[in-house]
Amino acid sequence: MGFVVLLGVLAFVIFGCVCVVWAARGGPRWVRGVAAVTTGLGEVVQMLAKSGKGSNRSNSGSSDDGSD
């Protein structure tokens, strides 16, 4: 069941990427809408990844205190 969900997510990601490329070449209005949603979701995921990476960095245990 989880595999089917992952395949569905992958299909949506590929479809969104195709729409972004098609919209850049001047596709129809619905393609530009799907491309806008895709790029917006990509920016949200990127922002969440950056915020998660910053919180993990403070708890990583490796510090630059100069002791070797």
Give a quick precis of the structure.
The chain has 68 residues and is mainly alpha-helical.
Provide the succession of SSEs.
HH
- Strands, count: 0
* Low-pLDDT stretches: none
**Secondary-structure-derived class:** mainly alpha
Overall average pLDDT = 85
Helix % is over 70%
Task: Calculate Rg over CA atoms.
Answer: 19 Å
Distance between the termini: 49 Å
How can the largest sheet be summarized? Answer: none
Per DSSP, what share of the residues sits in E-state strands of 2 or more residues? under 5%
Total helices: the number is 2
Anisotropy-based shape: flat
Please, could you describe this protein's structure?
- The protein has helices spanning 2-24, 29-58.
- It has 2 helices and no strands.
- The model has no long low-confidence stretch (mean pLDDT 85).
- The protein is flat.
- Helix 1 crosses helix 2.
- It is 78% helix and 0% strand.
- The protein is mainly α and 68 residues long.
- It has a domain at 13-54.
Itemize the secondary structure elements and their pairings.
Elements: H1 2-24, H2 29-58
Helix pairs in contact: 1-2
Task: Supply database-style keywords.
68 residues; 2 helices; mainly alpha
